[in-house]
UniProtKB/TrEMBL annotation:
Name of the protein described by the UniProt record: UmuD protein
SUPFAM superfamilies with a match to the protein in the record: LexA/Signal peptidase
Naturally occurring in which organism (per UniProt): Novacetimonas hansenii (Komagataeibacter hansenii)
Annotated Pfam families: Peptidase_S24
Residue ranges constituting the Peptidase S24/S26A/S26B/S26C domain according to the UniProt record: 9-96
Family annotation (InterPro entries): LexA-like, LexA/Signal_pep-like_sf, Peptidase_S24_S26A/B/C
Record gene name: umuD
Domain of life: Bacteria
Segments traversing the membrane: none
Length: 128
């Protein structure tokens, strides 16, 4: 079996034939060839309001510097969590996104049990 080639059609030529592109290399598109990029699968739906669903694959960058509003992979009290990070005059805080937590902020600065591992830079959905 062969793949689609827009230049080999029967009948009228496709008006999109000039726009047909070849295979898409997701590794290149997502920049997975960099040593600091990793895929991480989401378990749970805490950030569904941000469009991140259970089973999605997050592409994370361990070398990126977090900015307020970024989604990050963090350690919090011996758990690995996906959450939003924010900064105010008191330092960096994690916001879980769970509806039951309200707007609870968890401090990162100076806490031995908290830290940022990576910043999320892309979401891949395998089920629609």
């Amino acid at each position: 079996m062969s793949g689609y080639a827009g230049d080999r059609t029967t009948g009228f030529a496709s008006p999109a034939a000039d726009s047909a592109e070849g295979p898409i290399d997701l590794g290149a598109v997502l920049d997975l060839y960099r040593p600091n990029r990793y895929p991480v699968r989401v378990v749970g739906d805490a950030l569904s309001a941000r469009g991140i669903l259970h089973g999605d694959v997050l592409i994370v960058d361990t070398a990126a510097s977090p900015r307020t509003g970024n989604v990050v992979i963090a350690r919090w009290q011996d758990q690995t969590i996906v959450c939003e990070i924010t900064r105010n005059r008191d330092g960096w805080f994690l916001r879980s996104g769970r509806s039951g937590d309200g707007d609870a902020l968890r401090p990162v600065d100076g806490d031995q049990n908290a830290g940022i591992w990576a910043v999320v830079c892309a979401v891949v959905r395998t089920e629609v």
